[in-house]
């Protein structure tokens, strides 16, 4: 039964015999090729990935900084919206009805207590974004549930908004 140790010893013996049979110049060439191969492997496996990381990192850092700046703007906008006084329910309802009326027959607004539901069909993305912006700024309403599907050149779906309520007596 031949073990891996025996096989390794046989290969080593064959290598030694071939090495001894080579001329000194051939041995030098084999050593140079082995060193060249080692250098290529070190460069390909060790230095190249590190070099790539160094060249790609500045662009990645810039992208992260852009994202961070956007998040800071959103946080600031959120803070500003929180600091605004709440809108009385009657005024919030009027603002939502006015904004929804601009959507025409393609949208229907239903308001119950402190919730408003806008159902829409075939509304373009820009018009929908404008409606959401107006609902957020004029009515101080925030989306708590959204169901939107893209269809053709527009969108179908619904938004459920929570209306902020002003303390009574203001």
Task: Write a structural description.
The protein is an alpha+beta fold and 170 residues long. Helix content is 62%, strand content 21%. A four-stranded antiparallel beta sheet has the order 1-2-4-3, covered by helices on one side. Strand 3 and strand 4 form a beta hairpin. It is rod-shaped.
Write out key terms for the chains shown.
single chain, 170 residues, alpha+beta, 4 helices, disordered C terminus
Task: Explain briefly what this protein structure is.
The chain has 170 residues and is of the alpha+beta class. The chain has helices at residues 4-21, 24-83, 89-101, 125-138; strands at residues 107-112, 115-123, 141-151, 154-163.
Topology diagram in text:
Elements: H1 4-21, H2 24-83, H3 89-101, E1 107-112, E2 115-123, H4 125-138, E3 141-151, E4 154-163
Antiparallel strand pairs: 1-2, 2-4, 3-4
Helix pairs in contact: 3-4
Approximate helicity band: 55-70%
Q: Ranges with pLDDT <50 over ≥5 residues?
A: 166-170
User: What integer is the average pLDDT?
Assistant: 88
Largest sheet: 4 strands, antiparallel
Task: Please count the helical segments.
Answer: 4
Query: What radius of gyration results from the CA coordinates?
Result: 36 Å
What would you call the structural class?
alpha+beta
* Total strands: 4
User: How does the overall form come out from the CA principal axes?
Assistant: rod-shaped
